[in-house]
Specification:
about 250 residues, 9 helices, 2 domains, 6-stranded mixed β-sheet
Length: about 250
């Protein structure tokens, strides 16, 4: 497989996942032109479009892409039904697209119908999990987002987290404000800043790394709980997650 990261709009990433036959799927095309450019440059044939949720910066390029590829299937959750999706999918579905096989995982929180596509080791999780952070809650509840992230946490450490935005620097600044002495966060922040200085993406990241540097995945960390003023073992982990997300909204 060949994973291709396409910067688009302000800070979005569109992903292409290509097989050995130069066929690919397009994930969350917020804009069409960068996709056309990548397909031509790499001589790829698009087999399908996959949508994670209904926000415009994730599907704004669908109509234009379908003008040129009118028979291209567009998969998405129910909330994308009137925004370009032609085939609706839900948790538990398996998509076989050419030689690729995607499992659908429901991960509500950012939006109520948000889904992820998992084709090991690749996880296309839209705006649910970012490197060193997680998505804002526009429609769902804190408990829903916490549960969604716990689902992702069940995947193998080798999972490649293909998030849809380049937020890593700001996410790490928030993490460091809570755990300023954490060596792994410090080292990762230095590395990401070096990458971004040469306009290189910080994504994909691995689930193994995120377990170490993403405070939203460390709600059971005793040191983190102490920094939040929480007596260890006294508060449900979902409430610790909620407190972190509220703090990040105000950061």
């Amino acid at each position: 497989m060949d994973l291709i990261n396409i910067p688009a709009l302000k800070d979005n990433y569109i992903w292409l996942l290509a097989d050995t036959q130069a066929n690919c799927v397009i994930i969350d095309p917020g804009s069409a032109m960068p996709v056309f450019t990548a397909l031509i440059k790499r001589q790829l044939t698009a087999n399908a479009i996959l949508l994670t949720h209904h926000h415009y910066d994730h599907l704004g390029g669908v109509i234009e892409l379908l003008r040129y590829f009118p028979n291209l299937p567009v998969y998405g959750p129910q909330e994308t039904a009137n925004k370009g999706a032609t085939i609706l999918v839900k948790e538990g579905d398996n998509l076989i697209i050419g030689s690729q096989n995607f499992s659908i995982i429901a991960i509500p929180g950012h939006t109520l119908g948000h889904i992820a596509y998992y084709n090991a080791p690749y996880l296309f999780c839209g705006d649910t999990l970012f490197s060193a952070g997680c998505g804002r809650l526009f429609e769902g509840t804190y408990n829903q987002m916490y549960s969604s992230i716990q689902k992702i946490m069940q995947l193998p450490d080798t999972t490649l987290i293909c998030s849809a935005h380049e937020y890593t620097v700001s996410n790490l600044a928030f993490a460091r404000s809570i755990l300023p002495q954490d060596k792994k966060i410090k080292i990762y922040e230095q590395r990401v800043k070096q990458l971004r200085a040469i306009n290189y993406p910080s994504l994909p990241t691995t689930l193994q790394l995120e377990r170490e540097v993403n405070v939203f995945l460390r709600c059971n960390d005793i040191e983190l709980q102490k920094k939040l003023g929480i007596t260890p073992y006294s508060t449900p982990l979902s409430l610790i997650f909620s407190a972190l997300r509220i703090m990040k909204d105000c950061f």
